[in-house]
Amino acid sequence: MKVSIVGGSLGGLTAACLLRDLGYDVSVYERSAVRLEQRGAGIGFLPATYRYLQSRAGVDLTKISVATSKIVYLDADSNVRYEAAHNYLFSSWNTVYASTLDHFGMQEYHLGSEMMDFSQTSESVTVNFKDGRNVTSDLLVAADGIGSSARSKLIPSCKSEYSGYVAWRGMVPESQLSAEMVERLGSAITYFVYPHSHILVYPIPDHDGRVTPGNRLINFVWYCNYAVGEEFNSLMTDKNGTLRDVSIPPGYVSESNIASMKAMAVANLPKLLSDLVLKTVEPFIQVVYDIDIDQMAFGRVCLIGDGAIVARPHAAAGTAKAAADGWALAEALEKYDSVPEALEVFQRSQLALAKNLLDRTRRVGAKSQFLNTWDPRDPEVIFGLHKPGE
Length: 390
Ligand SMILES: Cc1cc2nc3c(=O)[nH]c(=O)nc-3n(C[C@H](O)[C@H](O)[C@H](O)COP(=O)(O)OP(=O)(O)OC[C@H]3O[C@@H](n4cnc5c(N)ncnc54)[C@H](O)[C@@H]3O)c2cc1C
Prior knowledge:
By secondary structure, this protein is α/β, with parallel strands linked by helices. It contains ten helices and 18 strands.
């Protein structure tokens, strides 16, 4: 069985490792010409995301993640207004990617390979790449993320829906923070919720994957509303004048937007958190979208991870969903000889999982950004893929 996986991020790589473990001939095709680098993006590290690394790749989780044992909510004066014991693991996108790619290896990981189109018959599927190459295999797994061209081709009517807000993100090395900030922000996930917004802060590995206290980064994710039209467009016009739609990476946000964001931090956040935001050198922006579809299996082609459904980040479960899709796909393919039949079975469980996550994260986002009903005791605000806490 020959498998082509398009998209070499966490979803595509996890599926690649799992399908290779079944003895298939698996190749990953990634558009980027160089190894991927999502500089600094911290992630809540849920069991589905680390399941492969822990159970099959022998990775020691303590070497690639940071553990916190409490959830803290601050008041406007930086005092603790609510605290609960809760264990989370946090990592960074780069650290998890590096571990997974180390395990998969570079031999069948093809950089600079952008899929332009594909076509299938009842026997095979052929992918056409930008450089003119064509590759034929038994199965195409499209793990090509939020802007999936496979999704656009298979479901042309599908549109992304802007949630009404973006996430301002950034991180600061612990070495640049006061001892009090490291002590308070390095041992917990810390929230501040105020009308129409919330910010969360947690420790993550540094760019070299170091997890020892003193070497880590303190990461923030701050959800802020921007109206469609002039307000959104001005925010998303980068320092070179290019209007972007999904994200603006570190180093590309305009100086004036960084200055407005920092002024907004001083005006709205407790000092403990505004001090952190002010110290961020290259903040970046990710727009929060919903994408909903009703089909993930199309004969010999399937969509996984953000290439299928995109849910808001409030469950910290995007990479977990992508990895869980890989596990379900591998289980179905192991059980059924026919690829289309296996994909139908995979789709049944994974559509339900993704739609459930999408509904839940829409509700959670509405509570903080629009309804102002966020309550720290609400179980729904706990991270989790299948449900809060799991
Ligand atoms: C603000 C914010 C916070 C988040 N926090 C968390 C969190 O705490 N925990 C968590 O688990 N998730 C989090 N996420 C979500 C997470 O980042 C995504 O869900 C996850 O990266 C999806 O993985 P993926 O592999 O499906 O797609 P992606 O990571 O988007 O990867 C898609 C890949 O496909 C490649 N590609 C695209 N088109 C082509 C093509 N035509 N040919 C070849 N390659 C192509 C791209 O270059 C890319 O490498 C967050 C997201 C946001 C916006």
